Amino acid sequence: MFPAPLLLFLLILISPLCLIFDGPMAYGVVTALVSLLLLIIAVRIRPGEAEFSSRLIFPVALVAAVPVLIILIQLVPSESIGLANSIWRSAGAVLSRRVTASITIDPGETLICMVRYFSLVGLMFATAAIAIERRRASWVLPALTVATTLSALMAVVAGLASAAHDNALDTVATTDAAVLGIIIAVAMVSQIRERATAASADQTSLGLPRLMLLVCLAAIGISSFAVFQYGTIGTFVALAFAIITFIVAGVIRRFQLDTWGYLAVVAVVIVIAIAALALRPGERTMDFTVALAAAPQSPLIGLTRRLLAETGWFGTGAGTFAALLPIYGDIDELAAGAVPPSAAAAIAVEMGKPFLWAALICGIVLVITLLRGAARRGRDSFYPAAGASCVVAVIVLAFNNSGLFNTAVLVISAVSIGLAIAQSKSRTV
Questions:
Q1: How many domains in the chain?
Q2: Global pTM?
Q3: Burial group, residue 273, by CB count within 10 angstroms (0-12, 13-18, 19+)
Q4: Which of 65, 178, 316, 379 could tie 152 with a disulfide, CB 3.0–4.6 Å?
Q5: Does 253 have pLDDT greater than 70?
């Protein structure tokens, strides 16, 4: 499959640059690299690997096709069936001509979002195809560890240089990447432990595993420092959820708890969620999409609630949150910036609340599926366990801030989930 793995590693390692240079240029570079990656895989993948990966990817592909269908519905003219946004009638009156009305208020931004979504889903599937082979999968975790550690190190250096408020660095997205980095580094420690066990059984040198273990511990320390430097209560809750999920995955595998283990995960999640909300009694809001928002007193919270109250089932169009602010906001609210208070709130506004609920359910199902994969796997169980932990962290972080929309965080998340899917089932069984 050469050079697909090298291209994937290159994409992972350059992703931290998107924490500074995110935007259309970054979207284009990522899309181009993913397209090239998929082309190489389509040409060079072995028949056995193609058959096995297609069986793993097919159910995920069916679910991943639903957002595309909804975005297409948002783009097509829908005035005749009463779904078009009312903003188009006002625009037609101002321009004194008929305007093609659709659900989305900005077709250009919605198209860009669809291309970004295609590239990220393609990256997830490409990672799954590459990581099907165990030797290639073992190199994806180190690449992810390096990328997330570099992301966290950028935040630490910015803080030490008193440049934490420099707009060039997205510290919110950097913190989210650091949370994922801690999970990935912990999984890397499990990988090193497995290799060390095999090395001791073969009576080979243990020097390299010990050195790699020290490097991983340093990576965990750097990422943890970045999280505690810039994190909020929601960030800490996301990290706690993720680590508990990783631990529970090991407990489920060790004691073969099966259904009871999954119920334990759900119970722990509910207890921690209630405790997290109880710690903020004066900051709770009525809408769950901003319940863990990093800035609960921001004027954007009230504006977001008004947008949610006026949003239909199909939303206002993917990528249109910023375009809505001048229409619905006043001067004080516009002065607070154009960044959504949380990714969940932006998704609910742009795609509709039913879509957000469906995405949340799909995320929980994916977590349970990966936990089952971890229970079935042997020495490679840390791959699906780490994937389940990353999905849990992403879900919680989506309700805390909008850093998940950064390209670097999306790339790390897509690769982590693709790796977990690929290694959730053994090819030898």
A1: 1
A2: 0.90
A3: middle
A4: 178
A5: yes
